[in-house]
Structure formats: structure tokens, C-alpha cells
């Protein structure tokens, strides 16, 4: 087991990474301050891992809420089911919410914890690779709105994260690839050595080798933690973590939430960012080729869905959160390991990039 | 005009108090950082004050959302109408929400600001006396749930508060009295001199004398600001601000939200706290008498509604947020100007207090 600490002053917390962590009472209990604990999970995860998680929480007033599985349920109605459960069981402000599941469960349970009685304690047990490397660090929580993704939410830090690599055994290949997309992202934005390590070890990762996974998860969390610690509220360099996301959100919204996985959309989005950067003259063709190769080896799509026109794509990008008063700003690359936020790109080159990237 | 500053480090902000402040561009504009401004108000306030507020915001991309008036609309559905409006107008994270109205509007718009895109800027223009002395300071925002009041929310500080005493001219007498209840509360919990000032000047306040109102609003905000600055997240002495609230919430919930005004319920709740304190031997009969007199002169009810049994009352108190693992704790009085949080009271005396306090 590896343990990292996300340093945020009085809200610092540990991330434990390794096999067999689910239900480790010695890791969970120091993060719980009251008697009431609510596990929030979904219909897919509950039969697989709920019993093990409950075993680590015996002795508490333990309740469970089991939500339907899927990005389409990441909304205010599902959030309200968590509030209902908390209030029906008369949970007080010293209660703890435990998110057992992927990113959707973490975002829902995290926002419920941020807003129930104006904020209660929160533990994350992410069960997907994506959630282990993304949602574990940064404190972002929230739900979608019909007019935009993650439009309603809060920053709320967990007290502790357990990333149990055993839970990755039941992930399907698409979900694994989606997590690998975020892992590749950390290499691309700020860690060229890690990118080179990924080029060497991608086959071990897709074969779910435990040691390789622990290394990649820890290195990803460490990269994210460094960025977040420097910029908790996302004004400056934290925006670099959105590499691929403005493009990716357009795909997710255009295709309907849940059709593409978030990580798949971000993977293609990162390649689009690389291709636009190359057209700007900031990246050379060999670097774009290395990025596309690594994404392909990870099992990720690299083309815009045929159903989406360039015009629709551009329109969807404009509603993304990263649109400031000053116009559309994108995370682009000036090299592998060197991302920048920039509004200083040629809109014609953006259009040309999208035109060229269509599938089929 | 008086200006106070609520000192909260980088989130410090001014409260301007006086006549003719509505629409003062020189006060509003320093608190706005983007181009997009959304005024959130209700159907009662809009015809009275919306035009004046808009006049101070010319030059911005200004939108307005007008909600129905009443505590019964302080819920997730109404909150969602604000999100809808923000997204339909493509408001970005640099936008500012302006709450123009009483406490319900402030709580709704404040929580929308806290949660829209994980937090945007927020200005309060409270138009009731209660909101001017209560919601202006402390950063509490949120909505009700069918199973409890203010159960969903966040701490979110405004950038600026304009308390325009001219808006109090259109308040009905019940609303004015509700605000006076909170003003009396500051005297009771920590400011015996202010309580004595209120005994001398209550007739000027009920006659809506501008100078008396400015003094009372400023002194109340100052008291609250001192408490909040010392304890932003409500762990210690901030709990004293809940004097009368556990009793009051029971009345509000038992009678149905909106039947009693919040301030009316808190007024009666403070008297119940004083009566229980007297039964404990902590307060003498003369002090209870002074409190009841002042509440009566302010135009406030001092009896539990006849419809509510003592058993129902006790049951509703138990679901209140102030119930910790350790059992029910109440804010009680050890003198005028000397409140304490205590779980150390005799439940039989609580029952006797409630039995004796019924109307009719």
C-alpha cells in the first residue's frame, strides 16, 4: 500500500492506494468523527463491494442508499434521494457520507456532503480507475443540469480516500481505458517522464498489473495534488487539469450524457487539443503521433463522432464553463508535459482541426 | 449612511446601512467583477424596488428572475428556477447574483451563488428588517426540505450588503416585529447595554424612525459580525446566535412553513428559553418579565400556538440541527446579555415550560 497526503492546511487528507483496502477499519475510522455513517453507492457496485465496505464500518449507526447507475442520474433528483435518506434517518451534522463507486457516485455523495446541513464529513472509496486518479483529489463535487455538465456543485474535500486496486478487476475494458485517459493527461500537462513511463508500461496497465496500477494511480494523484494544493479554487494553473475537457464536454453533451464515457471524451479531446496546438505550430507532428499512439494503445477513441457537425461542436464548446468574458480559452500544448491555457489560437485552425477529426 | 466591515480575511466585505442606498452604483460596482449580473427577487418586491436596483446596474449584461413570494417556495424546485435562468442566459463563473428581497430571497440566491459552477459572486440587498440584521452577516444560505428547515445549503459570503432603510417603509407591521425579534436577540445573548437601549427606544423603532433603525441595524450587525468573525463555521460561540431557534423551528414546522414568520417564532422561542432558564434558577423573574415586555412592545407573540401539543413540540425539537450525538442542547440565558449553550437542563422543566406557555 502507498499513502499520499493532499496538503490543504487544516483540510489535508490521506489517499491510500493498494489491494485489499476496502473495509479496512483501521484506515476508515480515523476519518469518522460522529456515530452516523451513510454509504452512498449504486446498483452495480452494491452487489460487488457493499458488504466488504460495511464490514469496515461495524459499530456505527450505518445506513445505505443505493442509487441507479449512470451519468444520466447525476442530477438534482438523485441528489434529493440522498437528502431524503439522511433526513429520514435523522442524520445530524456530525454524520459522515461514504461514496462507494465511480465518479458519478463521488460527485453526488460529495455534493450531498457539501450541502447537507451546510457541510458534513465525507470519505471517498472510488471503485473505477477514473475516479481513483481524478475525483480522489481536488474536492470537486456536483451534478449536471439539462443545459450543462457539472453546472451545480461545490468544492468539498474528503477526510480520506481509499483507492482499492482490487476493485479494478471488475471494470470493463472501456471503463479501464477511460481511466487511462486521465492518467495520460497528467503526463501530457506537466510530467514528460511519466508520459515516457506510460509509453513503456501501457501493456502492463491494460493487463491490470497491480504494481503498475499502483504506480500510475499514485503518480497521477501526486501530480493532481501538487496542482490543487497550489491553486485550490481553480483560478490559475489548476485550469490545466481541464486539458481535453472543453472538447470532451462538447462530445458528451452532443451525444447525450452517458453515450461516451467521460474519460473517452477527454481522451479524444486531448488529441484535438494536441492537433490544434500542432496547427498553431506549438507542437511537432511526431509529438502528436506519440499522443495518438498512446491513446490508441490504451483503447481510447481518437475521432469525433460522425453524428456531430463542426458547427454543433463549436456551439457546445461555447457553453462550457471555461468560457470567460474574454471569449473561449482552451488548454493547449507547447510540448509533451507542457500545457498552457490560451485564448490566443486561430478560430479557423480550430474549425480545421474539428473538420479533419471526424470519424469515417 | 453607516458602513461596517465584516472581517473574514480575504472574504471580508462591507455592509452599508442608510436611506437612499438602493441603486447606488458607486456602492454596487466595486463588488462586481464580471459583466453578467442576475437580480433575484420576488413578485412582491419587484414592483416596489426592482427598477431602482436596475438603475444602479446599467451597463452590465443584466438579467432578472422573479420568484413567487413566501417561505413555502424556499425549496429545491425554486432554486432550480435560478439555475435555469443562469444557464439559459449562459452566465459564466464570473457572474454576480444580486439578492433583492427578504431572507428567503437571500437564502435562495445565496445558495444558488454558492453552488452555480461551484461558486460565483453574490451581493445582498435585504429589504426586510429581519434580513438586514440577520442574513446580512454570517454567510448562511440554503433551502428547506419537507423534513426540515434549512437542511440543504452552504456557507457563502456576499461581496457587499446594501441595507436601505427606505425599503422598510413598505414592510407590514408583522414583518417589522419579526425583524425586531432578531434585534432583541443580540441584546439578550451578548449586549445588555443594547437591550437597555432597546427598552428606551422601542417606540421609535416601531414608528420606523430612520436614525433609530440605523443605530439598531448597525449595532445588531456589529454584534453578529463579531461572533461570526471569531467562529465562521459555527462550532463554538456562533451557536449562541441560535437563541430561540430550536423552539422557533418547532413552531414554524408544526404550524407549516409561512404560517408564523421566522422572527415571530424566534421571538416566542427566546421567551421560552428565558422561561426554561428561570425554572433552572439561572434567570430571575424580573428579567423574564423585562424580556416578555420588550417582545410585547415590539408587537411579537409570546405564546405557543394552541394547536401544538407539548409532545408534538418536543418531537419537532428533536429533529432540529442542534441535536448532536450527545442529545438536545439549547441556547439558554444566565442573565440578560449572557447566553450559554447547554445540554444541562432538566427535561421535566422543559416540559413544564412548554405546558405553561400554551396560548388560551
Automatic annotation (TrEMBL), chains A, B:
Q: Which Gene3D superfamilies match?
A: 3.40.50.1970, Dehydroquinate synthase-like - alpha domain (1.20.1090.10)
Q: In which pathway does it act?
A: Metabolic intermediate biosynthesis; chorismate biosynthesis; chorismate from D-erythrose 4-phosphate and phosphoenolpyruvate: step 2/7
What EC number(s) does the entry state? 4.2.3.4
Q: Which Pfam families match?
A: DHQ_synthase, DHQS_C
Q: Where is the 3-dehydroquinate synthase N-terminal domain?
A: 65-177
Note describing how the cofactor binds: Binds 1 divalent metal cation per subunit. Can use either Co(2+) or Zn(2+).
Q: Which is one GO molecular function term here?
A: nucleotide binding
Q: What domain of life does the native source organism fall in?
A: Bacteria
> Top-level EC class, please?
lyase
Question: Could you tell me what reaction this enzyme catalyses?
Answer: 7-phospho-2-dehydro-3-deoxy-D-arabino-heptonate = 3-dehydroquinate + phosphate
Q: Does the keyword Endoplasmic reticulum apply?
A: no
The family annotation for this protein states: Belongs to the sugar phosphate cyclases superfamily. Dehydroquinate synthase family.
Q: What is this protein called?
A: 3-dehydroquinate synthase
Q: What is the lineage of its organism?
A: Bacteria, Pseudomonadati, Pseudomonadota, Gammaproteobacteria, Thiohalobacterales
What gene does this protein come from?
A: aroB
Amino acid at each position: 500500500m502507498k499513502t499520499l497526503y493532499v496538503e490543504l492546511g487544516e483540510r489535508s487528507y490521506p489517499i491510500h492506494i493498494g489491494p485489499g483496502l476496502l473495509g479496512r477499519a483501521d484506515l476508515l475510522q480515523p476519518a469518522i468523527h460522529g456515530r452516523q455513517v451513510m454509504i452512498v453507492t449504486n446498483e452495480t457496485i452494491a452487489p460487488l463491494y457493499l458488504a466488504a465496505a460495511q464490514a469496515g464500518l461495524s459499530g456505527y449507526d450505518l445506513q445505505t442508499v443505493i442509487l441507479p447507475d449512470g451519468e444520466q442520474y447525476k442530477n438534482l433528483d438523485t441528489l434529493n434521494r440522498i437528502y431524503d435518506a439522511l433526513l429520514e434517518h435523522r442524520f445530524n451534522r456530525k454524520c459522515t457520507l461514504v461514496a462507494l463507486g465511480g465518479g458519478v457516485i463521488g460527485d453526488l455523495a460529495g455534493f450531498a456532503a457539501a450541502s447537507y446541513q451546510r457541510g458534513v464529513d465525507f470519505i471517498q472509496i472510488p471503485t473505477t480507475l477514473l475516479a481513483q486518479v481524478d475525483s480522489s483529489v481536488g474536492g470537486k463535487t456536483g451534478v449536471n443540469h439539462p443545459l450543462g455538465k457539472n453546472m451545480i456543485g461545490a468544492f468539498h474535500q474528503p477526510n480520506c480516500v481509499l483507492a482499492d486496486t482490487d476493485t479494478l478487476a471488475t471494470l470493463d475494458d472501456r471503463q479501464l481505458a477511460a481511466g487511462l485517459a486521465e492518467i495520460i493527461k497528467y503526463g501530457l500537462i506537466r510530467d514528460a517522464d511519466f508520459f515516457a513511463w506510460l509509453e513503456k508500461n501501457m501493456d502492463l496497465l491494460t493487463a491490470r498489473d497491480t504494481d503498475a496500477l499502483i504506480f500510475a494511480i499514485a503518480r497521477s494523484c501526486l501530480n493532481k495534488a501538487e496542482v490543487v494544493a497550489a491553486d485550490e479554487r481553480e483560478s490559475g494553473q489548476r485550469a490545466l487539469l481541464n486539458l481535453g475537457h472543453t472538447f470532451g464536454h462538447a462530445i458528451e453533451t452532443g451525444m447525450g450524457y452517458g453515450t461516451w464515457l467521460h474519460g473517452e471524451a477527454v481522451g479524444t479531446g486531448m488529441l484535438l487539443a494536441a492537433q490544434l496546438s500542432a496547427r498553431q505550430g506549438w507542437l511537432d507532428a511526431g509529438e502528436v503521433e506519440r499522443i495518438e499512439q498512446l491513446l490508441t494503445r490504451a483503447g481510447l477513441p481518437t475521432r469525433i463522432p460522425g453524428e456531430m457537425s463542426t458547427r454543433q461542436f463549436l456551439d457546445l464548446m461555447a457553453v462550457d464553463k471555461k468560457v470567460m468574458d474574454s471569449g473561449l480559452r482552451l488548454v493547449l500544448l507547447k510540448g509533451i508535459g507542457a500545457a498552457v491555457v490560451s485564448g490566443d489560437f486561430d478560430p479557423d485552425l480550430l474549425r480545421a482541426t474539428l473538420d479533419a477529426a471526424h470519424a469515417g
